[in-house]
Amino acid sequence: MGLGYAQQLPTFALRSEVGSYTQFGLRGLNKSDLYIILGTSDPIPESPRQYLVYIFKAKGDVYAYYKNSPLSSKTVELSEDDKKRLFDIIHSKKFKKFLKYTQEDFELKNKKKIYPPLPDTTYSLTVIQNGRQNTYSYLSKKYLESDHPRINKRMLKKYADILDRFGEVKANKSTEFR
User: How much is the pTM?
Assistant: First the structure.
């Protein structure tokens, strides 16, 4: 089963120069590839960050691995259907539109109020392509039910939707992002 149209990688206008990427287990970046990195970070300082890394190759294939500690990673087996769904996500209008947001869009605009931090697991999304990256980090979608004044529910809903799209592909294959 071929991937058809999806074999072509979209080109995204990402904002920042690529910083360090070794924490994701990447040893070198191919500028023609696309990297989607989903991460979780527990508020407990000793807890290692966990990452699910998707590498979309310019020739139309996609690979994935789960990194659960600095020295440990596990290949994630992807079926042809998984690969097609992943390519559908990166070609979707929702994903392309989401990448136009910045981390500042997640912050509430009332700068006069100082809210205490919410000690909870955060979820990150990093997109790397052509030496550029966008990185986002925010709380769990469980905060959609919260009345906490620090939560930007509009952005959290969009963010959770993107994470859920990737999460549907990797169900029961690695870390849970909910």
Answer: 0.82
- Pick the closest to residue 127 from 8, 4, 11 (CA basis): 11
Max alpha carbon distance in the chain (Å)? 56
- Rounded to whole angstroms, the Cα distance separating 12 from 132 reads 9
pLDDT reported for residue 45 = 66
Cα 16 to its chain centre, rounded Å, is 16
Paired tokens of 148: 């906490």
Measured distance CA(27)–CA(34) in Å, rounded: 15
* Residues forming a β-bridge with 63: 55
Vertex 87: Cα angle to 99 and 158 (nearest 5)? 35
Half-sphere exposure of 53 (CA within 13 A, CB side): 24
Q: Which amino acid does the sequence have at 96? A: K
Closest-CA residue to 175 (of 55, 19, 42, 80): 42
Q: Where are the beta strands (DSSP E) in the chain?
A: 16-17, 34-41, 50-56, 62-69, 72-75, 122-129, 132-139
Where residue 66 falls among pLDDT bands split at 50, 70, 90? confident
What confidence tier does 111 reach under pLDDT thresholds 50, 70, 90?
Answer: low
Please state, in angstroms and rounded to a whole number, the distance separating the CA atoms of residues 53 and 51.
6
Q: Count the helices and strands in the chain (H runs, E runs).
A: 3, 7
